[in-house]
């Protein structure tokens, strides 16, 4: 059932097809006779400035919906809401499928890395380390002893004076020049 239309001033209903009704921007309805009696661009009820729109079958659906019955509106909008809801549900399912696939790939990668780590941990200690080209006992003539190393450890116990090469090995070299030292 549609909402009955009547003039908010004289309360007449549109019985005669020659009577046209208008809707104001402030939300009041007037017949053309009452509208002509009032001031132009002013509402007869609330006295505010307003614009008018002649009611006809050609008005926008938004304005037409103001005069529809609630049962018709509910059916119309429930159908639209159902369509929107179905669209959003399909969209959510698509996104969920994508994330499930991505999680499955990440879990598979994690499983492979975990297995590799377990294999490395199960290896024998001799398999873990690779021999270095210079062992700690062999001497590299180009190596510089670290500061922590005892500089006198390379001296021979039997000789009274260290050789020149032994003295050079025992010297610590400071790669950063001192600000006090002249270059």
From TrEMBL:
Per UniProt, what is one Pfam family of this protein? zf-RING_5
An example GO BP is: protein sumoylation
What range(s) does the RING-type domain occupy? 7-47
Q: Looking at the UniProt record for this protein, which Gene Ontology cellular component terms does it annotate, in alphabetical order?
A: synaptonemal complex
Database matches in InterPro entries = Zip3/RNF212-like (IPR042123), Znf_RING (IPR001841), Znf_RING/FYVE/PHD (IPR013083), Znf_RING_CS (IPR017907)
Keyword Zinc annotated? yes
Q: Give start-end positions of Low complexity composition bias.
A: 153-165
Q: State the name under which the record lists this protein.
A: RN212 ligase
Native source species: Gymnorhina tibicen
What are the top taxonomic ranks of the organism?
Answer: Eukaryota, Metazoa, Chordata, Craniata, Vertebrata
Name the gene that codes for it: Rnf212
